[in-house]
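Lab notebook, entry 682. We have the chain sequence and a SMILES string for thiamine diphosphate, and the next step in the workflow is to get a structural model of the bound complex before anyone spends time on docking refinements. Request logged below.

Task: model protein plus thiamine diphosphate, output structure tokens.
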Amino acid sequence: MARLSMVDAINTTLHELMAKDDRIVIMGEDVGVDGGVFRATVGLLDKFGPDRVIDTPLAESGIVGAAIGMAVYGMRPIAEIQFEGFMFKAFDQVYSHASRLRRRSQGLYGVPLVIRAPYGAGVRALEHHSDAPEALFCHLPGMKVVIPSTPAEAKGLLTASVEDPDPVVFLEPKRLYRLFKEEVPEGEYRIPLGEARMVKEGKDITLVTYGGMVSVCERAAQHVAGEGVDAEIVDLRTVWPFDIAAITKSVTKTGRLIIVHEAPRSFGVGAEIAALVAERCLLSLLAPIKRVTGFDVVPPLARLEEYNYPDSDRVVRAIHDTMQF
Amino acid sequence: MKEESNKDLIQVMDPDGRIVDKSALKAIKESDMLEMYRLMNFTRLWNSKALSLQRQGRMGTLASVRGQEASNVGMGLALGPEDWFCPSFREYGAMFARGIRPEELYRYWGGDERGARPLEGSRVMPVCITVGSHLLHAAGIAWGAKIRGERIAVMSSSGDGSTSQGDFHEALNFAGVFKLPVVFAIQNNHWAISVPVEKQTASETLAEKACAYGIRGARVDGNDIIAVYSTVKKLLDVARSDYRPALVELVTYRMDDHTTADDASRYRTKEMLAPWQGKDPIDRLRKYLSAEHGWDDQKEKGLIEELTAEVEQCVKEYEGAPHPPPEQIFEHTYAELPWHLREEREELLQQVGDAEK
Ligand SMILES: Cc1ncc(C[n+]2csc(CCOP(=O)(O)OP(=O)(O)O)c2C)c(N)n1
Ligand SMILES: [Mg+2]
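Result returned:
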């Protein structure tokens, strides 16, 4: 096993997947010669050539639309959108076509497409480079949304996403790209989509989270452990369709639930989880459900970024409120 | 690499500052040229200061405009007083020409949104990061003006990369169909991050894309400020008076990395850069001014000292301004804050207050 950062784990995984399956092509802005603006696709052009690693013109709708055609034809395209904020130039292709072609063709044409994009705040970037738009994709029937939280997770989940018969939006928390390294399994390694990860077991309160917020929750859990509160952390991994069984099982055990994500609160992933828990295990709850999230604002630029991005203090506050209810 | 195309290139001054088209000079006064020279130099000094602040951690990521000062300043000065301007993110010089305050632009690139608010009455849109989107806004502003009978023109500016976006084609088509008083300026700096323009399009020139939409296309030496200024001005005049839209390609070169987050040595060789070293837009105008208008070393020294002091003053104002208050993140989300944002603001203030205790 090698110790890799998340971006290196993604790069290694792409190398291995492409070597194994010649239907895979990578397309996007600056993914070839430059190796991607975060270097996630470095070395792929040299190894696999310009037919399989394609520097496209600057056109996201072009990238995703053409990738859909390739996928229908029998290729396995991995489209890179340079930053999450530019996905919306391609949103019509995702909304109207990637998510629906299976249904529209009554099962004849699937769209085995992965759209990768760096995602989220925490790197003091420009506008459109710090957004968390996952809920917009979760809302589309036919789409899957995956967000890894560690380097090894990124490998397992990216492999499963590429092998999945349906379109997947794979969002990579850019703050984590180089934040830490961990042991990443060598060779084939897949984590089935739709299965959450138990990050830490606990009996008092459940924290459901994903992506860049997992480590924030770990810090908060450590903090409250000192006060005698035993928090359980569930990492969704597949944000939609998420692992409802893992959530209800945990909430039934602890009786308390906080959902933590950096995306805006209203109509977000937390709202869906809260609704489902209310529907399925309301009577297990000992306190109201809480959400610790980004505010319903345009993600602020560097100077004020930290005030919108949930940190462990905010999670600790929410744990205190919930425990003291 | 493909040979640089000289097809239909409008030039007034060659790279040595020699005039190749005298007719274009008639409409330009000496004072105009001195203003062009001053603004190009200011833009360069402002830009290099921003880059050095960035390296010291005193500024955020930003896109260097070095090499494109003639395109920037020429198009900015060509606008009439009531015209509108829709920039992307590499037009500092054009924004300064429109009265945008340089310390405010520092503030914006330094990560404080308040610096993005355009000067009241400037008729300048804020920086647009999503490539190509704002060409449609320019078309829409022009359309509104046409409907209301206001005789103005609108100009957008974007890069060679933007010509690949659907929005670019939609904007040109709307302009053609509805005969809008709009000019789409393209700064063809030969690169969209690592992608060279010859991989961006199979067209020989960007200007010729205008033909498909029934609008005028013009192609200008973008390092020749006299050519940029006079051509763009003419196109704006015709747009204003005859409702004839145009696309103008300004052929220039990005001399630095794409942004401070980029490393151009990964995809661009010294040999590619070399031919452009001798085409510097500021040197070119200086050579002309020296030969024909008595510009000399002493005047040069005086100007650079004066502009350097101006830039230092901008830095002082930028760095001396108070940090934005946390609750600023809620401001201007709507004209009036709805209940949920008022609640969220309270939540944040409470948190900040507790943290300070
Ligand atoms: C819609 C969109 N996609 C991708 C990006 C990322 N990006 C920023 S600038 C750039 C290249 C732009 O090239 P060009 O239009 O030639 O302008 P230049 O940077 O050369 O001034 C890219 C791909 C973006 N800002 N917007
Ligand atoms: Mg360019």
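Notes for the group: The interface with chain B takes residues 29-30, 32-35, 37, 55, 57-59, 61-62, 85-86, 88-89, 124-129, 265-266, 295-298, 300-305, 307-308, 313-314, 317 of chain A (CB under 8 Å). Worth checking against the assay data. Chain A has two domains: 2-184, 197-323.
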